[in-house]
Amino acid sequence: MLFRSSRLVLALCAVLANHAYAADQFSVRPQQLQNLGITLSTLSPSSSSSLSVSYPAKVILMPDQEQVVSSALNALVTQVMVQDGMAVKAGQPLLRLQSPELSSLQLNLAQAASQSRLAQAAWAREQELFTTGITPQRRLLEAESARQQADAALTQSRVALQLAGMTSAAIQRLEKGGKPESDLLIVAPTAGVINAMSIHPGQRVQPTDALLHLIRPTPAWVEIQLPIATANRYRPGITLQVGDPAINAKLVSLSPVAGGTQTVSARAQLLSKPSQPWLPGTVLSAKLPVIGGAWLLPQAAITRQGAQAYIFVRSKEGFDARPVTVSATSGQLVRVEGPLKAGEQVAVSNIIALKGIWLGESGMEEE
Question: Which CATH superfamily is domain 54-64+217-289 in?
Answer without folding.
Answer: Efflux pump adaptor protein, beta barrel domain (2.40.30.170)
